[in-house]
Specification:
The complex is a heterodimer of chains A (94) and B (197). Chain A is α+β, with helices and mostly antiparallel strands. Chain A has two helices and six strands; from the N terminus they run ββαββαββ. Helix content of chain B is 39%, strand content 16%.
């Protein structure tokens, strides 16, 4: 991955932006173009703002695992067009 | 784990998904890999079976990739129902058995709870079938059964999340499941403590 001499011929530079698809529970997808080094919190915040909901009521998951806000696409090994899930807070008493 | 999540552990408050899922991940740490016991999260059921009651395996086909669920001994699934109720699904792949534990099967809820057990039990069964098939494993759906298991009952309208957590704890540790509402009341601070440490 990084032992590419000179970088010549590397199709994707290290910090080329990628598109991430956020899929909600209704199946609706929202697209985000971000750099691989950008913290996911930026995506989460923007998404919550766009949807007009509090970020604390949203959960973002990659293949079933909750994504920490401080992670980057690089940490998560996300590639262009990869999809993450957005789910709503759950609660129950009765 | 935010203050908002923590506050759901106060007496009388409904537990949220973060608390339940964190507690289940703590339980995962109490078993060894040889035991082949898995504790899944609360998003799993909601993802594959939405509030409009559509089941879609594709939505979870990449989930828990590294877990050999088809050959597990026991799989614990916390299930959230329309953001109001928690029940527990226990899958026993070796025994081809799915148990549903519902702490709210009181008289006026009886019919509803039986229906819930059938529906959510069936979704778990369909998942197990699709999972096996996706890995080219045989699966005889007719050999399986789904039962609603008798379990301790809540006497209020707010503790089902605690009942689900404690049932999974006791069951997975092979402890006799004999407790009541009073005991459950005392467990909220202990769940908080175990999450914080």
């Amino acid at each position: 991955m990084s032992d590419n001499e000179g970088g010549a011929g590397a199709p994707e530079a290290k910090n080329e932006p990628i598109t991430i698809r956020v899929r909600d529970q209704t199946g609706e997808e929202t697209f985000f173009k971000i750099k691989k080094s950008t913290k996911m919190s930026k995506v989460f915040n923007t998404y919550a703002q766009r949807k007009g909901v509090q970020m604390s009521s949203l959960r973002f998951l990659l293949d079933g695992e909750r994504i920490a806000e401080t992670m980057t696409p690089q940490d998560l090994e996300l590639d262009d067009q990869d999809q993450i899930d957005c789910m709503l807070e759950q609660s129950g008493g009765l | 784990f935010t203050t908002k999540d923590k506050d759901t552990l106060a007496p009388g408050v409904w537990l949220n998904d973060v608390v339940v899922t964190l507690f289940f991940s703590l339980l995962q740490n109490t078993v060894t890999s040889q035991q082949k016991v898995f504790f899944l999260n609360s998003y799993f059921m909601t993802k594959m079976f939405d509030d409009w009651n559509n089941y879609d395996y594709k939505l979870v086909q990449r989930w828990f990739k590294e877990l050999d669920l088809s050959n597990a001994n026991t799989i614990y699934v916390p299930i959230n129902i329309t953001k109001t109720h928690w029940i527990l699904g226990i899958i026993h792949p070796q025994k081809k058995l799915i148990e549903i534990c519902d702490s709210l099967t009181r008289k006026y809820n009886k019919k509803l709870s039986i229906k819930r057990a059938k529906v959510y039990g069936h979704v778990l069964l369909l998942f197990m079938e699709d999972r096996a098939k996706s890995r080219s494993l045989g699966f005889d759906i007719t050999a399986w059964s789904i039962v609603q298991k008798e379990c301790p009952q809540q006497i209020n309208d707010n503790d089902c999340g605690v009942f689900v957590s404690i049932y999974a704890l006791f069951h997975s540790q092979n402890v006799d499941i004999q407790y009541n509402q009073k005991y459950i009341d005392s467990r909220r601070p202990e769940i908080l403590q175990s999450i914080l440490t």
